[in-house]
Amino acid sequence: MLNKSIVRLAVPLVVGALALTGCGDSGADGDTIKIAFQGPLSGDNVALGENEQNGVKLAIDQANAKGDLGFKLEYVASDDQGLPDKATAAAQKVIDDESVVAVVGPAFSGATNTASPLYAEAGLVTVSPSATNPTLTDPKNNFTSLLRGVPNDSMQGAGMATYYAKKLKAKKVYLIDDKTDYGAGLAGVAEKGLKAAGIEVVRKSVPQKTPDYSATAKDVVNSKADALIYAGYYQDAAPFAKKLKEAGYKGAAISGDGTNDGKFIELAGAASEGWFLTCPCTDATVEAGTKQFAADYQKAFNRAPGTYSAESYDITNMIIEQIKAAKGKVDREGLRDALKKATYKGLTKTFSFDENGEFKGTDVYLYQVKDGKIAYQGNINQLAG
Amino acid sequence: MSLQEFWDYLVLGVMLGSLYAVIAIGYTLVYGVLQLINFAHSEVFMLGAYGSLIVLQLLDPGDSPSALASIGFVAMAMAGSALFGGVTAYGLEKVAYRPLRRRGAPRLIFLITAIGASFFLYNLAGKLFGRDPLTLPDMYENRDVFSVFGAGVNITQMLQFLTAVVMMVGLDLVVNRTKLGKGIRAVAQDAEVASLMGVDIDRVISRTFVIGGVLGGVAGFLFANLNQVSYTMGFIPGITAFAAAVVGGIGNIRGAMAGGVLIGVVETMTVPLLGDEWRSVSAMVVLILVLMFRPMGILGKQVGRAA
């Protein structure tokens, strides 16, 4: 009796084990190379993640479609919801997949901060199209696998400060950060720039997901500031913009790339009118170099490219170029070292990095919400004059 | 802070507080009859907001509806949120709590079930309605209609405050003047004796949930007017309102109202004095102080045994 039941148990176990090993074998296909994207693909700021994801996908699909690779590229999505506490799991998922050789992302600064030590240990290169907190490339961090494909917030914050000081001649600026790594970093730089220009600054922190912005809006009006900087993401900028309008705020308002998305206008409605938005990114639908890209993107995803779509596309192509140069025979460390030294002329700008992985380049662009659309204005320093 | 600014913030605080009060009533009612902290109430609130959004998207107010149409849209949206809130709360009671009650499950199991139901509902909402935040369409042109102590009050705020007051007064009348109210009070005091006196406990509990759900749902709609609609919107107002219910004395309806307004005013006053990041901290400090000196809450008294 005993033997029989052992056999009964053992048969399915053995069959199961065989099936599992079978799976393992079929998964390791030598000719498939994977490129991952890590960013918010669900959660509160999902639009910012999707913009980038689509850029990555488009680049991979186009490379595969050309048919001259000699290997097959595959896209891997890793969702961190833009949150630091979800970033570890998201990074580990990518690292555990051995056929992933490079990561585009992480998209947000906080998540990058958490995930980068893991990537550094794994030797897996990450090129972020949008994590702009200045401290990320501090050599003390030892984020040896992190490359930044975008000028950091020092440039964006300084650009905002210059624009307010020179162009709008602001006297008093109300400066808000959203307590995220991104918002606090951006606000810190802007504060320095404004103070250097002799402008009075009221600095406040308003955490993300504050349920009611009425009191804050009132505080802005009562402070008699003639200009405002909101350093945070669109999800919170939108209700805040609405409350500001209700409170009767008449001054200028500016926000950074975290707000630079059509979703901001959709959520804030008429209250978004007149808001300035900065971004180290160009408008893919306006700039001549990205017209074709914008059309392809529209065709593939049935919408216009958003913030950092074109930059993500460029970064992915830069990675693909390096894989091609190695004829598809790449390991993680090799690709990382190659990318660190690479110079790539993309559609949006030329990508190259200093020894800390920091982007070499300083251009920041200004946008303004006009008639319910984000209108591209041009290089912020040139506009400030 | 100048005197005028003080009035400005006080008015804003009372408005916000009246919303917390309406949500807090949901916690208090359920606690009164079941001795259960219904942590899924924040999801009832969230789904109420989606209910009004769905109704408004179906009706589509367009760019500038007339005054009469505006009233219609607001009424329909409110009805939608009340329906969603009520149905969710009814369903919760039926699916999550009643079977436990039938089996005489211990208190702790109810609490765990409540948290589980909350997780389930908000993730379900994220799946169904998308995880992007959404905004209610404009139903009217929001402008100041009158002022209180020099503080301007706009249409949204007026709507928020009046609705809250009407609902609270109405509930107070229901509980104190009607047969259902008598039943609720009886079950809250001693369910066993109430059932011996011929009160149908299941029916009373189920209706209590529906009332709390309707109030919570409408509060969700009003809150969505203040901010926006998202599947995670329930958590922070839910926790704050729970604190308000405890501050007022959990199980006590008028206490929940008082606690809600108190917490709303304290939170709002914190913004100019200490800054936004201290809002929740000061609300919780109020909670701690009240619990230290009056553990049963401001208006609380010894509550009855559980059903």
From TrEMBL, chain A:
Residues 32-373 form the Leucine-binding protein domain. InterPro entries: Leu-bd (IPR028081), Leu_Ile_Val-bd (IPR000709), Peripla_BP_I (IPR028082). Transmembrane segments: none annotated. Residues 1-19 form the signal peptide. Gene3D superfamilies: 3.40.50.2300. It comes from the Bacteria. GO terms for biological process: amino acid transport. Keywords: Amino-acid transport, Signal, Transport. PANTHER family: AMINO ACID BINDING PROTEIN (PTHR47151:SF2), LEU/ILE/VAL-BINDING ABC TRANSPORTER SUBUNIT (PTHR47151). Belongs to the leucine-binding protein family. This is Branched chain amino acid ABC transporter substrate-binding protein. It comes from Streptomyces thermolilacinus SPC6. The lineage of its organism: Bacteria, Bacillati, Actinomycetota, Actinomycetes, Kitasatosporales.
UniProtKB/TrEMBL annotation, chain B:
It is found in: Cell membrane. The keyword NAD does not apply. Keywords: Amino-acid transport, Cell inner membrane, Cell membrane, Membrane, Transmembrane, Transmembrane helix, Transport. GO terms for cellular component: plasma membrane. The chain crosses the membrane at residues 6-30, 42-59, 71-92, 104-125, 145-175, 204-224, 230-250, 257-275, 281-300. It comes from the Bacteria. GO terms for biological process: D-alanine transmembrane transport; L-alanine transport; L-isoleucine import across plasma membrane. GO terms for molecular function: L-isoleucine transmembrane transporter activity; L-leucine transmembrane transporter activity; L-phenylalanine transmembrane transporter activity; L-valine transmembrane transporter activity. It is a multi-pass membrane protein. The keyword Methyltransferase does not apply. Pfam families: BPD_transp_2 (PF02653). Belongs to the binding-protein-dependent transport system permease family. LivHM subfamily. This is Branched-chain amino acid ABC transporter permease.
